[in-house]
Structures are given as structure tokens and as C-alpha cells.
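Whiteboard transcription, Tuesday session. T.W. wrote the C-alpha cells on the left side:
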């Protein structure tokens, strides 16, 4: 399984054929795809569909946009004959939310979970040096056994629609890249690199390589100028890198770790990763990077843009990084699912810290854009319902795949294991404990773990805070709670809660991972009213005054970088409008306020400036 997580790379022994582009696409309204043998014969009445993309916003009719069920993708692929001696895998960076892959009518793979990669091993079904029919069935139904959670509702005329328990559109399909990957028969299946410590400028690094053969393994580490700084033999061991260039906040440095399987002079397989040397840890109220306390500035985000939906778009991703850099950001959270691997690679290069979130959102039954999130707690939560053990299995698998995929990224500083779960009853504790323990066990770097705490479970109500290594608060006092003319009450409510946290969790750093208010770009009002740009600015000023009162608040990530699409609802005007930027990435007034604040707030609380050291 780990091979699925290795990002596909061309090397002296590996080849890639990109399968993005136009595929055949069909809705399977009557669920007849298998019966009519689409896996072997191809799709009937297919239309063109670009990959990667979400299918929803391409069509002009509502039925297609809201489609709930199976959709099919198909295309012909040419598999070179010279690849016969090795492995041919079809690598899906993501298929949302579950997929079955067929080649020439033979089922190759099934995968559950819409935001992590998987491979379909093709050798046994391939027509070598010939054209082959690749068919994928993708299903987007939500349930209590899917991450994220939701349910399917049947309307009076029999139409089925998804009802997400989360506040983003349930975009689906082949939303990320698809590649055919050739690797040698004897190959590198996994590699792990951990910076264990840095003492007097020397980085002590441990590495581990898994192969499926018995030939010798070599590791070479090169700096950014291509100079080899370390070499080792063996599948695991320690390396010392003297005068190490550490990976720092907004001052990244990446070494290239190249692994080779060798047979005498012959390179049997080669793979590489670009890795930053750094440590992350928590010390009392401080969140430390290389031993220096940091202040996180950034956003909760979404992979979301007009027409593409959640389809990975490198252009939008680049723009988002430029926006964040313009604002003085140094971090973001992958709310509410693992983002495309290319986003993390960019964060590695830009020196951004990332709180990496598993798609565990919707653990609070609410189908109205989180309208219930601020309501007082209920007697039974999802964790108390029969069947929750099935959700737990899916959740564990999602945590496994997230950590396998992202374990080597320097940018990943913490795991977010749930977004806004209703942890108000004791029933949540055994479930949460299993998830927290699993993440600790699987992560070779033992990164800090947490989850975002929801307003419904304010200080004193939440039963699981002791599991978190640091706290993440999502608060909307001044928007969902005491908004508009009541904003001064909101200030007091939040300050009172902070005083409670001060006593309840005296030894943990706190981040605000969501705060914000819906704002229609271009609506101005003096004096302000809710939804105007002026109100958004006043709200943010109030929030920041409160954060600055508590020195153990060491991070702020407003909701959201940009406006984004959600399910329709009475609280949403064509989507969620809490962005500092519009959905087409232009600033609202609050963007300038945040830029002013963050460009004048140091990345490191102790004044450390890695850029000045270069
Ligand atoms: C939240 C959720 C986020 C929503 C946001 C909102 O607490 O975590 O997914 O979009 O509130 O705007 O209501």
C-alpha cells in the first residue's frame, strides 16, 4: 500500500504518462453501467469531460450539478511494450469520494476516500504495446460511513440528493491528476526521513527505505546547489549533516534525498524527494519550529474556484500563494480535507507551515451550512449512535493514508484529526482516543495533533480537549453569536471564554483556526451593517484586540482566504462570503487590514529572523 503514497516522479528508472485531458463521461442515473458492461465496452451516450475537474459546474442544468450517485469516466490509453518487464500502475491523485477502476473490462482496484491517492496495478489486464480501455466508476454519495459525513435524501419524485453535514459544495469526480506510472519490477516502495535533532548546527537525520527486493540500497543527500553532503548504504540509518541549512518559516531550504537500489554498477531503481530539515515541537505555551516559538498567520482555505469547482488548478493555487505572501501569511490549514500534493510541495518551497486536516468534517449533524454549530449541546451526538464503529474504521483509514502521503513534508507541522466534532458527550472519548493514538503511532515525526473546537463545545463542555497537543478554536462571536448591534456582547462572551480556557488548559498553545463574517464585496454602509465591508473590518479589529490580550494565543487563521461555493441555503448567498478575497481572488477591505497587521507582526515570537542570517 505505501507505494500508492509516493508522489510519481520520472527518474533514470521510472517513466510517467500523464492521463489528464478529455475523457468520456456519463451519469449512471439508472445504475446500469455494470449490467451493460461499460467496463469492457465503454460508455453509452458519453459527453466530453476534462480531467482534472469537478463535473458539477460544467453543465447548465440543475440535475447534473446536483447529481448524486455513480458517474463513469473512460478513455483509451496506449501502454508501451517496453514496460512489460516492470510495473504499470494507474495513479489517481484523488477520486471523490470512492472509485472502482477497470482496464479492458477487468476490475483493478477500489478505493474509498476522495482526497488521498491510490494506484490501480495494471499488469495483469494490459494489452502490451497496444491501446487499452481504462474505465473508472466514481460515486459521490454521502453517508455516516463516508468522510466527510452527510446523508442522501430522496425527493418525492424519486430524485436523490446529497445532504452534506458540512458547509462546502460536495464537488466530486476525478478532481486531481491521473498518471500511468512505470516502475522497475524491483522497486522502492516507500521512504521516510525524520530530522531528529539539530545540535550546534549539525542536523541528525534518520531515514528508512522499503523496497520489494533484496539488492543493496544507497542514499545520497544533495544541497540546493547540487553538492553531495551525505551518502549512506543500507535501507535505514542515521545521517549527520554539518552546517545544515535548516528549513525555516518563509525561508525554506530543501535538500534532495535520492534513493537508489543498486546491483553492482547498475541502478535498479531510483527515487527522490525534496526535504527540509527542521524540527517541530511544543514547549508549554509555545509552538516551536527549530526551537524558536512561532506565531502563525494565515487562513483556513478551500480548494475551490469558479467552474473548476474543486478540480486541481495550478493557476489558482499559485494565485492563492501570491495572495497569502502579499498579506504576510506564513501558514494555512487544509480545511477540510487533504489538499493536492502539489500544494504541499509549494508550501515546502515557500516556507509555509501547514496544519494538515483529514476529511473528518460533519461530526455534528447539521444540514443547514453549520447553522447548528453554535446551538447548545444535545443529549446524543453522532458518537453515541449505533454504527459509529464503521465510521471509525473509515476515519482510521483516512488518517493512515494522509500520514503515509504527507509524512515527509517539512511544511506539515501538525495534524488536524477532526473539524468541529460534537465532543459534548462522554461517548466521543473512546472514538477520539483511538484516532489520536493512531496518528501518534503512524507519524514518524510525532507531530503535534489537534482538532478544531466548535462553539457548541465551548470551554468546559468539550470532553476531549485533553487529547489535543495544542488547541484550535473556531469562533464566530460577532457573527453567528451576538452579531451586528450586539457586537460588544460578543466581545465579552469571547473574553469570558478565554479566561476559562486559561484555567482549563494552562499548558497549551492556542490557535484561532476560524473567525470571520460573511461580507458581500462592494456593499458599503456608514455606519456599518452586517454583510458590509465595514462590518467585516470592525469585526476583525475586535477579534484581534482579544487575541492580543492573551499571549498564549500564538496563531490566527481567519475563515476564509476566499469566498467559496456551498450547498444552497438560507444563510448563503450563492456560497459562503467570509473570504478576505472574492471567489475570483480580488480583495475586500479587510484584506488590507490583515496585510497591515501581519506584515508588521514577526513570524517568530522571540524575534528570530532566519532571512537576516543568510
Ligand atoms: C465553520 C466550519 C466551516 C464553515 C464556517 C462558516 O465552523 O468549520 O466549514 O464554512 O463555519 O462559515 O459557517
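and on the right, the sequence the group agreed on:
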Amino acid at each position: 500500500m505505501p507505494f500508492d503514497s509516493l508522489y510519481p516522479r520520472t527518474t533514470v528508472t521510472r517513466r510517467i504518462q500523464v492521463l489528464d485531458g478529455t475523457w468520456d463521461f456519463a451519469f449512471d442515473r439508472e445504475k446500469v453501467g455494470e449490467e451493460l458492461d461499460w467496463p469492457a465496452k465503454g460508455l453509452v451516450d458519453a459527453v466530453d469531460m476534462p480531467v482534472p475537474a469537478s463535473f458539477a459546474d460544467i453543465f447548465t442544468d440543475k440535475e447534473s450539478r446536483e447529481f448524486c450517485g455513480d458517474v463513469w469516466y473512460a478513455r483509451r490509453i496506449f501502454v508501451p511494450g517496453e514496460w512489460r518487464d516492470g510495473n504499470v500502475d494507474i495513479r489517481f491523485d484523488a477520486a471523490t469520494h470512492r472509485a472502482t477502476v477497470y482496464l479492458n473490462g477487468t476490475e483493478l482496484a477500489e478505493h474509498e476516500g476522495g482526497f488521498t491517492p491510490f494506484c490501480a496495478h495494471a499488469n495483469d489486464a494490459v494489452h502490451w504495446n497496444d491501446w487499452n480501455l481504462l474505465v473508472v466508476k466514481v460515486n459521490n454519495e454521502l453517508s455516516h460511513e463516508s468522510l466527510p459525513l452527510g446523508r442522501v435524501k430522496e425527493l418525492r419524485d424519486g430524485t436523490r440528493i446529497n445532504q452534506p453535514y458540512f458547509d462546502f459544495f460536495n464537488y466530486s469526480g476525478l478532481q486531481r491528476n491521473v498518471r500511468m506510472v512505470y516502475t522497475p519490477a524491483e522497486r522502492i516502495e516507500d521512504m521516510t526521513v525524520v530530522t531528529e535533532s539539530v545540535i550546534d548546527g549539525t542536523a541528525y537525520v534518520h531515514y528508512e527505505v522499503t523496497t520489494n527486493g533484496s539488492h543493496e540500497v544507497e542514499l545520497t543527500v544533495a544541497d540546493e546547489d547540487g553538492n553531495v553532503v551525505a551518502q549512506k548504504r543500507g535501507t535505514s540509518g542515521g545521517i549527520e549533516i554539518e552546517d545544515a541549512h535548516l528549513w525555516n518559516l518563509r525561508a525554506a531550504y530543501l535538500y534532495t534525498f535520492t534513493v537508489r537500489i543498486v546491483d553492482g554498477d547498475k541502478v535498479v531503481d531510483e527515487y527522490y524527494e525534496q526535504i527540509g530539515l527542521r524540527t517541530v515541537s511544543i514547549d508549554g505555551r509555545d509552538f516551536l519550529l527549530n526551537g524558536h516559538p512561532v506565531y502563525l498567520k494565515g487562513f483556513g482555505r478551500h480548494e475551490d474556484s469558479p467552474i473548476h469547482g474543486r478540480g486541481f488548478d495550478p493557476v489558482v493555487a499559485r494565485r492563492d500563494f501570491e495572495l497569502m505572501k502579499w498579506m504576510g501569511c506564513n501558514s494555512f490549514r487544509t480545511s477540510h480535507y487533504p489538499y493536492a500534493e502539489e500544494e504541499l510541495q509549494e508550501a515546502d518551497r515557500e516556507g509555509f507551515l501547514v496544519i494538515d486536516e483529514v476529511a473528518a468534517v460533519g461530526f455534528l449533524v447539521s444540514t443547514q451550512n453549520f447553522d447548528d454549530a453554535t446551538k447548545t449541546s444535545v443529549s446524543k451526538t453522532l458518537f453515541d449512535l449505533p454504527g459509529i464503529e464503521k465510521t471509525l474504521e473509515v476515519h482510521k483509514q483516512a488518517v493512515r493514508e494522509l500520514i503515509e502521503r504527507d509524512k515527509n513534508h517539512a511544511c506539515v507541522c501538525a495534524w488536524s484529526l477532526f473539524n468541529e466534532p460534537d465532543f459534548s458527550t462522554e461517548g466521543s472519548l473512546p472514538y477520539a482516543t483511538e484516532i489520536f493514538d493512531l496518528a501518534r503511532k503512524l507519524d514518524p515525526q510525532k507531530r503535534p495533533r489537534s482538532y478544531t473546537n466548535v462553539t457548541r463545545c465551548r470551554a468546559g463542555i468539550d470532553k476531549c480537549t485533553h487529547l489535543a497537543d495544542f488547541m484550535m478554536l473556531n469562533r464566530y462571536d460577532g457573527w453567528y453569536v451576538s452579531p451586528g448591534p450586539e457586537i460588544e456582547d460578543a466581545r465579552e462572551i469571547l473574553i469570558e471564554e478565554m479566561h476559562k480556557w486559561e484555567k482549563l488548559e494552562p499548558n497549551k498553545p492556542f490557535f484561532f483556526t476560524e473567525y470571520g463574517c460573511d461580507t458581500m464585496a462592494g456593499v458599503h454602509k456608514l455606519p456599518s451593517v452586517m454583510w458590509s465591508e465595514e462590518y467585516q473590518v470592525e469585526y476583525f479589529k475586535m477579534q484581534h484586540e482579544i487575541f492580543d490580550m492573551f499571549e498564549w494565543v500564538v496563531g490566527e487563521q481567519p475563515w476564509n482566504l476566499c469566498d467559496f461555493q456551498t450547498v444552497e441555503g438560507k444563510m448563503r448567498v450563492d456560497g459562503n462570503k467570509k473570504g478576505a478575497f472574492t471567489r475570483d481572488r480580488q480583495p475586500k477591505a479587510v484584506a488590507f487590514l490583515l496585510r497591515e497587521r501581519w506584515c508588521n507582526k514577526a513570524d517568530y515570537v522571540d524575534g528570530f529572523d532566519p532571512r537576516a542570517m543568510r
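Someone added at the bottom: The two ends are 41 Å apart (CA to CA).
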